[in-house]
Amino acid sequence: STGGHTFSCICGYPGIPGDPGHNGMPGRDGREGLTGEKGDKGPTGAPGGDRGIQGPLGPPGRLGPKGEIGVPGHKGSIGYRGERGSRGDKGEKGEKGEAFAIFKSAFSVGLTAQTKLPAANAPIRFDKIIYNVQNHYDVQTGRFTCSVRGAYYFTYHITVFSRNVKVALVKNGAKIIHTMDNYQSSEDQAAGGAVLHLEAGDKVWLQVAGGELFNGLFADEDDDTTFSGFLIFADE
Q: Per the domain annotation, does 75 fall within a domain?
């Protein structure tokens, strides 16, 4: 009641709901929430799709800095032989060398039917000249004269007939070697030889060294008795 008046109110049924109102203005952002707990690892996803086509090669990049020298590699095998190169140019003519002197001295002589069975204890004069270009053997004396200092080889071959043989190779009067052979009713052969060192002017010859009973050095158209010698090398 109000001001002494009494009002009575009868309540009716609820009305039909009205239409929704217009949307209000957006509210302000709320405060940031607390960090949630880490969740469990999810299942592995399916593999991706096929790889795409390779793109074109890009332009070369800038040259980088020079790296350090690497460890030496293993020695490789020998390669194939290369082709022969072209002939080089002819070189200049060299200086003239010293003259090389070639000394020559040689002889080879023999007996004849007129000089066979020579006298004893004297140089045998071989009068059959086989070789004596330098004339170092003297037919008149039967002696060889050395013209250049050096080593010489002397040899003799004797046909022995009718008498025994004993000869000596002589150098300046000294007997160097002897050869002896006894005659036995038919032709026989004897020989000897030696290397001698001679000075210029030395003389060498062959002579019978046992008297007239040992001079059976024989020669005719079919048999020979020879004496030879030559320079092996000259001393410097």
A: no
Contacts with 167 (C-beta within 8 Å, 6 or more apart), sequence order: 124, 156, 158, 178, 179, 180, 190, 192, 206, 207, 208, 209, 214, 217
CATH of residue 167: 2.60.120.40
Instruction: Confirm if 179 and 191 have CB atoms less than 8 A apart.
Output: yes
Of 30, 47, 226, 8, give the one whose Cα is nearest residue 124: 226
Q: What is the domain range of residue 159?
A: 106-234
Give the number of domains in the chain.
1
Other Cβ atoms closer than 10 A to 219: 22
E-strand ranges in 141-199 read: 143-145, 150-171, 174-181, 188-198
Domain-embedded: residue 129: yes
Per-residue pLDDT reduced to its tens digit, 211-235: 889 999 999 999 999 999 999 999 9
Q: What is the pLDDT of residue 10?
A: 59
Residue 31 lies in a domain: no
pTM, rounded to two decimals: 0.59
pLDDT digits (tens, 9 = 90+) for 59-95: 888 888 888 888 888 888 888 888 888 888 888 888 8
Q: Is residue 225 part of a domain?
A: yes
